[in-house]
Amino acid sequence: MTIGARITNPARGTVQIDENYSNLCLRSHERFQINGSGQYVTIQRTFTTTTGVVAFSEGDVFVGSVNRNGDRTTYNLTARPGTWVRAYIFDTSEYGERYYNDAIGMRIRNPNTGRVVFDSRNKYLRLVDFIQGEGTSGHNQNRQYSGKNLAAIQGSAFATWFVAGSGEFGPFFSVNIWSSMRASGDRFVTSQEQTQINAPPPVGRRSATQPNWNYLIIDTSNF
Questions:
Q1: Are 207 and 162 in contact (CB under 8 A)?
Q2: Three-state SS for 81?
């Protein structure tokens, strides 16, 4: 008989951690400033993670796109110049930061694969809430989670783009509207951002909308 370990919730009697446990843990974290000129700045920031999962906190930021290439994931981030952002990069257990390296800990492996599925020295992702909706309600979320220190993972954000004009032949202008997010302390907030620029006459007026929005809210206390 194989000796194993299983951790249960005493209140519910449910298995919390066993050889089939799966969760993401903190691989690294960093703080950086988004610099540039203009009303808004879009930068590319590359993180090392095999999962591509990054949570953000501190400043208002919008994730325009995410591109993965092996263990390198590049985020296109839009914010006002001078915005400070903190990023929490998550990965699977074998890539954890291994906190408390001098302390005695516990590892649980899958006996069939030998893979470490849980390491008590890692800091695992703690989900607080999953929120979602459609339309402009994505602009005005303001939620408090008492006792938490929040970061947010943007699944998708409400955004719309259109070209319009004052007459049949213009002048024409291009408008971009999107929702930025800010997780700071125990509060999560989204707000509307907008740019408008002059545009050459298009072949007809055009528009595109991403109506659905969703965010994972996580707790980074003690991270």
A1: yes
A2: coil
Q: Which of 62, 36, 58 is nearest to 138 (CA)?
A: 62
pLDDT band at 4 (very low <50, low <70, confident <90, very high): low
136 backbone dihedrals φ, ψ, rounded to 5°: -70, -5
What tokens appear for 7 in the block? Answer: 């951790």
Nearest to 155 by CA among 209, 210, 105: 210
User: What is the model's pLDDT at position 1?
Assistant: 36
Nearest alpha-carbon partner for 53 in 78, 41, 34, 71: 71
Confidence of residue 107 (pLDDT cuts 50, 70, 90): confident
Q: Identify the burial level of 127 via C-beta atoms within 10 angstroms of its C-beta, where 0-12 means exposed, 13-18 middle and 19 or more buried.
A: exposed
User: Cα 99–76–207 angle (5° rounding)?
Assistant: 145
Grouping H, G, I as helix, E, B as strand and the rest as coil, residue 52 is: coil
**Partners of 177 in beta bridges:** 160, 194
Look up the pTM and report it: 0.84
